[in-house]
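WARN no homologs supplied; continuing
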Amino acid sequence: MSSTLESKEHQALRAAVAALGQKYGREYLARTAREGGHPDELWADAARLGYLGVSIPEEYGGGGGGITELSLVLEELGAAGCPLLMMVVSPAICGTVIARFGTDAQKRTWLPGLADGTRTMAFGITEPDAGSNSHRITTTARRDGDEWVLTGRKVFISGVDIADATLIVGRTEDATTGSLKPCLFIVPRDAPGFGRSVIDMELQAAEKQFELTLDEVRLPADALVGDEDAGLLQLFAGLNPERIMTAAFAIGMGRYALAKAVDYARTRQVWKQPIGAHQAIAHPLAAAHIDLELARLMMQKAAQLYDAGDDMGAGEAANMAKYAAAEACVKAVDQSVHTLGGNGLTREYGLASLITASRVARIAPVSREMILNFVSHQSLGLPKSY
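OK structure emitted
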């Protein structure tokens, strides 16, 4: 599924990542999740080969590329059945924010480790009572001498147990207006007052979800990332890559499911011909393939706009890409399971668990309804309903 829109270098990267993915595959990831472990071997291999750090600047040990390359890596791992969810969080969100806005000390401290996989960082924005409304975030940061003191709660935060630190979105009081503005803080995993508890998810994944509590967590002044007055810009500098990477995650998953279904339809014979010869089987699979290809085009557009520095254009395209990829993924998974019939629900074929997993892209990191809200009033100029 290489694209003529991609350079030979990108096509070569696709092929190399796909080969790594095939070495591990879906059974590796499923077994890791069942055993309560983490995909450490795959993470280490991907790091060693330079795939985790493709978007990190070269001076910090990365590949010097952008979200274009990083999304390509995640898509191909997903298509092989072994996507790494922490790629969305650690290099894409946290690595990008620190590379763009961090101090020189923060860059030196974090970027080499994020690039070579020896350090990981989680990202904490969602709150129990805020949902998709980031303006309702109640985690606050107040100054106390040379320190910051953070208090609040976060929910559905991925991989906190394995992350060296979590990039927490809090709010500080604007000295001139008195209103609260968003700021980002690096909170070490072992910071006193920083608690976590596992959320019991129906979804089986190696990366666990956590609820976090910040009870008067004291941080040094240099825990603040970037400029205190540029919080919103810095926040969306991380959220746009998150949406693009979620699209890559979904497209990869959809491709994996579709490949399984196509292989089955090509060989499964009930009457005189393989079932794939029947249009009732073939056409929905063809339509799913078209939807995934279209979603990828929008993902590529969003990534290229972001890498070119067009944050506004990337915001619109990233939301559209995430929406399109999620819908395409859900349809591809549903059709693939249906193509296999009863076999689609067996553990042997590994598709049934994707019914739940594919819904994640519709829900996180922002719901499809909120994306439709964004497009209706930002792109179409319709009035807001909220």
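The first helix runs from residue 8 to 34.
OK
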